[in-house]
Amino acid sequence: MSVLAPEGRQPEHQQASPSGSRVEPPSELAMWFSDGWTVTKRNLTKLKRSPDMLVFAILQPIMFVLLFSQIYGGSIEVEGSDYTQYLMAGIFAQTVIFGSTFSGSAMAQDLKDGIIDRFRTLPMSSSAVLIGRTNSDLVLNALSVIIMMGTGLLVGWRVNTSLSSALAGIGLLLLFSYAFSWVMALLGMSVKSPEVINNASFMILFPLTFISNAFVLSSTLPGPLEAFANWNPVSALVQAVRELFGNTGTVPVPDAWPMQNAVVTVMIGIVLMLVIFVPLCIRKFASISSR
Amino acid sequence: MHCGQLLTSTPRNRAGVALPFMHGNHRGRRSEEDLFVEERARPCSRRYESLRPQGTVKALLGPNGAGKTTVVKILTTLIQPTAGTAHIDGIDVLREPKAARRIIGVSGQYSAVDENLTGFENLEMVGRLYHLGARGSKRRAQELIEQFELTEAGNRPVKGFSGGMRRRIDLAGALVINPKILFLDEPTTGLDPRSRLSLWGIIKDLVRDGTTLLLTTQYLEEADQLSDDIAVIDGGKTIAEGTADQLKAQIGGHRAVVSLVHSSDAASAREILGRHGDGEPLVGDDGRSIEVAVSDGPRALQYILSDLGESGIELHDAGMRRPSLDDVFLTLTGRRAEDSDTKDASTQKEAAA
Question: Which residue from A217, B71, B131, B174 lies 20 to 30 Å from B235 (Cα-Cα)?
Answer without folding.
Answer: B174
